[in-house]
Design brief:
The chain is built from four helices and three strands; from the N terminus they run βαβααβα. By secondary structure, the protein is α+β, with helices and mostly antiparallel strands. The chain folds into two domains: 62 residues, Alpha-Beta Plaits, CATH 3.30.70; 66 residues.
């Protein structure tokens, strides 16, 4: 495989050695540090922000019953049906605009019905194994700012002069 012209990221085999120059509990603090380096004229293309100690966090947002499953299915089906109905109406060049709106409305209703049925069937097939709804996210516990080894000392010296964040953050 050959390198693309104008590529900016080095390949992993040829990446320069990077060393930590600062560690922060919050992404905004790490971002603020890199922004400060940029404001000081430091070559920030030689830095990176790395999330460390990443965890999968699954936040349970509520119980999921048949009504909720049907409602979620109807919502997603309605949006899909609306889009498909609108597209069918949009590409019909010889009918009035009212036909486009009618097809979109029919798509919305039909999509909601089909989505609700699929939502109910999917929930029934679970047989009580997962009767809750949740949202998953990856969350690092800290953020390291790293820089190429050749410029790390300069970056550390500049960050030593970084003023405290307004509001104590």
């Amino acid at each position: 495989m050959t390198a693309q012209p104008g590529a900016t990221a080095p390949s992993p085999r040829h990446a320069p050695e990077r060393v930590p120059i600062a560690s922060y509990d919050d992404y905004r603090e790490a971002e603020r540090a890199v922004d400060y380096l940029s404001d000081q004229g430091f070559p920030v293309q030689r830095t990176a922000i790395i999330g460390r100690d990443v965890q999968l966090v699954e936040q349970v947002i509520g119980r999921l019953d048949y009504g909720g499953a049907a409602l979620r299915g109807a919502g997603s089906g309605a949006l899909t049906g609306l889009l498909i109905g609108w597209l069918f109406g949009l590409f019909n060049w010889f009918t009035p605009v009212l036909a486009t709106l009618t097809l979109a409305l029919y798509g919305l209703v039909f999509g909601a019905i089909v989505g609700a049925v699929f939502g109910l069937v999917a929930h029934a097939l679970q047989r009580g194994r997962r009767d809750f709804a949740s949202v998953r996210a990856m969350a690092p516990s800290r953020y390291e700012v790293v820089a190429d080894a050749e410029v790390a000392d300069e970056a550390r010296a500049l960050l030593a002069k970084l003023p405290p964040a307004p509001g104590g953050a």
